[in-house]
Amino acid sequence: MENINKYRTGTFVIEVIMILIGLLFLVPFYFLFVNSVKTFGELLTDSAGLPTTIEWSNYSRAWSITNFPSAFWNSLVVTVVSNLLLALLSAMTAYQMVRRNTRFNRSLFAMFVAAMVIPFQSIMIPLVKVTSTIGLGNSLYGLIICYLGFGVPLSVFLFHGFVKSIPFEIEEAARVDGSSPYGVFFRIVLPLIKPMFVTVIILNTLWIWNDYLLPSLILTSPELRTIPIATYAFFGQYTKQWDLALPALVLGITPIIIFFLAMQKYIIEGITAGAVKG
User: Do residues 190 and 182 touch, judged by C-beta distance below 8 A?
Assistant: First the structure.
């Protein structure tokens, strides 16, 4: 009984510490939401306090200035299309690398892993030149192709360890029953790697939706702006319109927060399963 009481006391202390740490991470969200409904003057003089009057007009002005529906649609198209292509192509690539363990595939996988450590800043200028030369600049499909190139290494790495956990005998049984190679992958392998498939989609969604640097290099037309680029319009060289920028940030992060809260359980499930089985 004494050990149980000690365990419960220790667990309680750890839970309290974790709750305090969680509240600490929520502090920036408090400042964001509270200051988004303040006037510009009150925001500068008392950023930590509650607003004396709630300025909901900040949201309508931010919505209009950023042309939020257009920016939201651009971000949605880029995120959804890039995610689906990334997850599917990476899963197929990792599956072939695992099942056909040739020297070429091992070397190719090593190149994917090595590509993960290359800093993006070191290839920004060549990227802009190449995309403009081959006609991929200032277009959503060009941005999607760039995301495929930068996102495939990590996605393949995650899938590679997970595919190893799938028994090869299941695939052999499907081939004996007359299933084609594509049938084996889509009917047998893909359902089994669903946890990692969803995990890759979630991680890439958080990255692509919030990314500012790559869209700022590829997209130049105002009608093609994604949400991060549209929000940056409030920050000029001499002025920073915080009373409008903060509502725009709230509008931009709300969809991704809802998506993350709805799908967060798959992150731990997928990564844990991949770590244990791989």
Answer: no
Q: Domain coordinates of the chain in residue numbers?
A: 68-277
With DSSP H G I counted as helix, E B as strand and the rest as coil, what are the percentages for the chain, rounded to 5?
Answer: 80, 0, 20
Q: What tokens appear for 172 in the block?
A: 């052999």
Residue 220 near residue 138 (C-beta atoms within 8 A):
yes
- The pTM of this model reads 0.83
3-state SS assignment for residue 218: helix
In 3D, which of 123, 145, 148 has the Cα closest to residue 134? 145
Arithmetic mean of pLDDT, 58-74? 91
Confidence of residue 69 (pLDDT cuts 50, 70, 90): very high
Residue that the structure tokens 């993960």 belong to:
116
Half-sphere exposure of 202 (CA within 13 A, CB side): 22
CATH number 1.10.3720.10 given to 68-277: yes
